[in-house]
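Supplementary Methods S3. Input chains for the assembly prediction are listed below.
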Amino acid sequence: MTVRVRHGWPYLAGAVSAAAWVGPYAWMVATSFKTLPEIVAHPAALLPEHLDLRAYREVFAAMPVARYMAVTIGMAAAIATAQVALALPAGYALAKLRFTGRRFAFGTVLACLLVPAQATFVPVFLMFARLRLVDTMTALVLPFAASAFGTFLVRQSLMSVPDEIIEAARMDGAGEWTIVYRILAPMLRPTLVSLFLVSFVFHYSDYFWPLVMTTGDAVRTLPLGVALLREQGTGVRWHIVMAGNVVLSAPVLALFAVAQRQLLRAVRG
Amino acid sequence: MRPRSRWHPWTMLAPTLALLFVFFLFPIGVAAFESAFSWDLLTPPRYVGVANYRALAAHGELLRIALRTLGYSGLVVVGTMSLGLAMALLVNRRARFFALVRASIFSAYVVSWVAVALLWMGLFDRGGRSLLGDPRWALPALAFVGVWKLAGYAMILFLAGLQAVPPSLLEAAALDGAGAWQRFRHVTLPLLMPTAGFVATTTLVTSFQAFDVVRIMTQGGPGRATELFVYAIYEQVFLDLSVGRASALTVVFFAMLLGLSALQLRAWRARGPAAQ
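Predicted structure tokens for the full assembly:
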């Protein structure tokens, strides 16, 4: 008996911990299927009386979910693609080519690692306002098209690729761009996939930049739309907010379920 | 290796360097410049010297924002580290069940801050009354949400650190008669220090930039109990239309962040070899 208790406690503690994280999601999903009278009567109930889809219908009526989703995915995909495409040649130049100014160029990239968007948004907003680019896709994508972190990551991975591979490719007559995109890119596949996924998930979820760079509905993203559901509704219309929350989180959680390994790789560094 | 032509390296670097310069380095300079002007976006800017900084420092406003933000970050760092380490020790087991526990804890790190903030706002709500409306508990409540979100990140890093502890060391300590606690205290913990430094500083820098939880859950209130740095900048420029004040706040914010990042760089270097 004592033996069983000794070996059982990690399972018990594990179950409690998992519940502390899964429980809130479960409440979110359950609440999204409730009705307003139910929420008022039993706010904490983990199971709705029956599956009521009215909250979802209200979410779809209150905002153009499909358009917000398309804008958000388009923005995140554009940023992630640009970051990978630009980090490859830049990382190659920093890791493999000897030229005067290399230390300066690498130093610039490293310095940018220390500057978050939270410290640049005021001047960048004023700049875009002057160019009449507020409320455009350009204002959402362009500032993140190049990634200091991505460039650094690609440079680090390329350091371990032997020079002989590049020399052999040059002997075979391959141009520099062919070497970067056709020969080195496939070799760095795991790194590039991680970089793309992390960047995509980050910008899909980002609230701060779309909030400060938009004033209207033209390129509103899904996180903003969902947050607005709360601001527009007064009182305790949590079923509608949680339905919006489910719509916002489901794609990311699905991606996490499929690509957990790649996302974890990027976090471990 | 020698580039094929002198221009190759620079054409390959040009887009990246240009974008990074325009959107990250140049704006810092612009903020420093604008902080010497009074500008409401409508009438022409007027040179005021250090008046913006002086106005912010008057009545201790700036100091309060800085201390409040550091207080929030401190709570988040301590909470995230202790919970992350505890969870890492718990799930560092082979059974599939623990892989599931691991995934559920880490999932909060992947989900957006918006979703997490709204979710906990709903959970804190007790028929219109909430912890978030209490000036004493609002900031700790936000920190709690930050810990819930970031604990998975700390857990993953601590887990990698735990798995890098050589089993032979633990076995040798056990042969010498060290109990489980002594093995943890004298073998595992010292070897985890570089990881701990890395987790502490990255969490510190991240939480110092917190904005989403404030904007969504409290808008800086009640009173100014949860007005953190980035939210204060946001308020100055978008609600008060005071570009000069916002720029001055930005400069102070960035200077403090650089100080914290200096700690971070030291921790990165310490972890460097272990991470590879």
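The beta strands of chain B are 37-38, 46-47. The longest helix of chain B spans residues 243-275.
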